[in-house]
């Protein structure tokens, strides 16, 4: 085959699409239960929205963006994440003029030029939430509990929550200066990658998995011990609200996120069964982002969950989502005359809500029965010359194999009763 889907992208085919639909349905259900409303923003934005040039340098913005020039010479970027777009939209549409806080969620594809591997793709899908215009630590706990509740709906109950506070514009610069000084002193023990990060993004050093770096990192100054009093207070409050909800967490002062806008609360839920790409969802506060994007002091908090990773986690635990492919009824056709009658019946059954299929390949009865089996049909309706002459059809229960002749005029009513009985 000459053509392949681009590296790092996936075709999602049936029956797997049923799982995606199930996840999306549950997401709509759970998020609206928490009073979050769906927002749909463009897949591409002006590049400057993501490349704001403030804060730490991050790989996502520096190396991983799909950026291109359109025919009008504008620089556009396929969105690598959803938060910046949501805040842009909140500001552009003056949502701040309405009753607050604003609670939004989104589901959709994101794009990052990363090295593809298990759980890491170039086009992947996130479902995410953003709660805007409140700095209430109870909302931090709500956001976290919302993510956990959603995972529970899919049968994922025992995943570890890592929690940190990354401080604010007041206390973080002092901490970063302290960290830089410490890392510079211990530079010789660090890997080349970390060495190069000391100046450009010292916080990312804390994320290095290299063994030698680990011992330096473990003795590094901790952000949680360098918070200003208001950040410290906020962090304690978040914990107390999580305690009220009886949500277990692990405070991890080494947790740093891959985007530059975080302030205060940062969190991640990991599944160790997933290997290197083990974070199912992550997020935090971004109280300075609206200022950067639109000169407005509006706090916010949110998270995003990787749908592909959620599916991998379910697979690793052998959890099957309750989805079913197939049909209720299959019409087995014998002969050209019967086909016309069947085609009419097919339409009637479908319009009455039965998932129904018939043969379109002129196959023999045996093959048609096999198709019915493959589609998990509860009943097949057999219509041939004999039946037509009697204005009837034979109904076969595919599980028990029992057959019954029914007048075509009564067929719809009978099927309703039979299928209802089956479902009870
Ligand atoms: P993020 O940590 O960059 O945060 O991504 C969130 C989640 O998206 C990850 O935990 C992971 O499950 C999934 N993910 C990220 N990159 C990939 C990839 N290349 N392939 C597959 N899955 C991936 C954000 O995007 C923030 N916008 C989250 C947020 C919302 N913070 C505040 N509000």
- Overall, the morphology is elongated
> Which class do the helix and strand fractions yield?
alpha+beta
Average pLDDT confidence is 95
CATH-level-4 superfamily name of the largest domain: Bira Bifunctional Protein, Domain 2
Range of strand content: 15-25%
CATH architecture of the largest domain: 2-Layer Sandwich
Distance between the termini: 48 Å
- CATH top level class name of the largest domain: Alpha Beta
CATH topology (level 3) name of the largest domain: BirA Bifunctional Protein, domain 2
- Main sheet record: 8 strands, mixed
Q: If you had to describe this structure to a student in words, what would you say it looks like?
A:
The protein has 424 residues and is α+β, with helices and mostly antiparallel strands. The chain has 2 domains: 16-171 and 227-316, BirA Bifunctional Protein, domain 2 (2-Layer Sandwich), CATH 3.30.930; 329-416, Anticodon-binding domain (Rossmann fold, 3-Layer(aba) Sandwich). Helices cover 39% and strands 21% of the residues. It has helices at 16-33, 47-50, 59-63, 83-92, 137-153, 172-185, 192-200, 202-205, 211-218, 229-244, 289-294, 307-316, 336-351, 365-374, 385-389, 411-423; strands at 37-38, 44-46, 66-69, 75-78, 102-111, 123-132, 160-165, 250-251, 263-270, 279-285, 300-306, 329-333, 356-358, 379-383, 392-397, 403-407. An 8-stranded mixed sheet has the order 1-5-6-11-10-9-7-8, with helices on both faces. Helix 1 packs antiparallel against helix 5 (137-153). Bound molecules: histidyl-adenosine monophosphate. Residues 81-83, 112, 114, 119-121, 124, 126, 128, 130, 257-259, 279-284, 286, 302-306, 308-309 line the site of histidyl-adenosine monophosphate. Homodimer. Its main location: cytoplasm. It is found in: Cytoplasm. InterPro entries: aa-tRNA-synth_II, aa-tRNA-synth_II/BPL/LPL, Anticodon-bd, Anticodon-bd_dom_sf, His-tRNA-ligase, HisRS-like_core, HisRS/HisZ, HisRS_anticodon. Its EC number is 6.1.1.21.
């Amino acid at each position: 085959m000459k053509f392949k889907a681009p590296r790092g992208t996936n075709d999602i085919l049936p029956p797997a699409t049923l799982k995606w639909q199930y996840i999306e349905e549950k997401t709509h259900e759970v998020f609206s239960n928490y009073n979050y409303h769906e927002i749909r923003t463009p897949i591409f934005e002006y590049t400057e929205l993501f490349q704001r040039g403030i804060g730490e340098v991050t790989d996502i913005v520096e190396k991983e963006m799909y950026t291109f020039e359109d025919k009008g010479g504008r620089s556009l970027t396929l969105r690598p994440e959803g938060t910046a777009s949501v805040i842009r939209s909140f500001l552009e549409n003056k949502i701040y003029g309405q009753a607050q806080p604003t609670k939004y969620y989104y589901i959709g594809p994101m794009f990052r030029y990363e090295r593809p591997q298990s759980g890491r793709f170039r086009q992947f899908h996130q479902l995410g939430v953003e709660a805007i215009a409140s700095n209430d630590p109870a909302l931090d706990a709500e956001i976290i509990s919302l993510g956990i509740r959603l995972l529970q709906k899919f049968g994922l109950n025992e995943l570890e929550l890592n929690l940190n506070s990354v401080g604010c514009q007041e206390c973080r610069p002092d901490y970063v200066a302290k960290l830089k000084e410490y890392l510079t002193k211990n530079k010789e023990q660090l890997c080349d990658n970390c060495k190069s990060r000391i100046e450009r993004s010292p916080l990312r050093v804390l994320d290095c998995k290299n063994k030698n770096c680990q011992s330096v990192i473990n003795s590094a100054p901790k952000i949680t011990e360098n918070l200003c009093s208001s950040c410290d207070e906020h962090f304690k409050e978040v914990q107390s609200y999580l305690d009220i909800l009886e949500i277990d967490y692990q405070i991890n002062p080494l947790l740093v996120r891959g985007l530059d806008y975080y302030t205060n609360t940062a969190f991640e839920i990991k599944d160790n069964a997933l290997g290197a790409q083990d974070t199912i969802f992550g997020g935090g506060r971004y109280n300075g982002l609206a200022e950067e994007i639109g000169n407005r002091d509006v706090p916010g908090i949110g998270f995003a969950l990787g749908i592909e990773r959620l599916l991998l986690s379910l697979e690793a635990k052998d959890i099957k989502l309750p989805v079913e492919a197939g049909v209720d009824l299959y019409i087995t056709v014998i002969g050209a005359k019967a086909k016309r009658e069947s085609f009419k019946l097919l339409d009637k059954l479908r319009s009455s809500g039965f998932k129904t299929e018939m043969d379109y390949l002129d196959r023999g009865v045996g093959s048609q029965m096999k198709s019915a089996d493959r589609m998990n049909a509860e009943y097949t309706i057999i219509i041939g010359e004999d039946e037509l002459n009697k204005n009837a059809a034979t109904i076969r229960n595919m599980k028990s194999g029992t057959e019954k002749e029914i007048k075509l005029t009564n067929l719809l009513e009978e099927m309703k009763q039979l299928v209802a009985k089956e479902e009870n």
